[in-house]
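Subgroup meeting minutes
Present: P.N., E.W., G.H.
Scribe: E.W.

1. P.N. recapped why we're keeping a running log of single-chain structure predictions: easier to compare across weeks, and new members can see raw inputs and outputs side by side.
2. G.H. added today's entry (128 aa).
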Amino acid sequence: QVQLVQSGGGLVQAGGSLRLSCAVSGSTFSIYEMGWFRQAPGKEREFVAAISWRSSSTYYADSVKGRFTISRDNAKNTVYLQMNGLKPEDTAVYFCTRDRRSTSWANNVGDQRLYDYWGQGTQVTISS
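Output recorded in log:
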């Protein structure tokens, strides 16, 4: 079975940094595109970042561009989200996810319907 286990997150002051990790088991990790989404209370889940299987392409929501960095280590079956310059509006539950290997992925990276397995979610809270 495929499992995505997240770690990291927590409480940090505005302007601080956090690093989220997502370890994947039960699949050939390196061939899958990976993504991060987040969901704030009362809001729909929204796209944050995505990375291709070779790490040759990355994608970011406008709200996090320049502050967040997605990366992956295929030898460790792990994808990361480095979050710098955190703002109170970044407060949310963050989820990592695996692409369904859709041929249209590169043109639709923010569409959650293109992802099949999800991590358990990790809380990120930014205080002002």
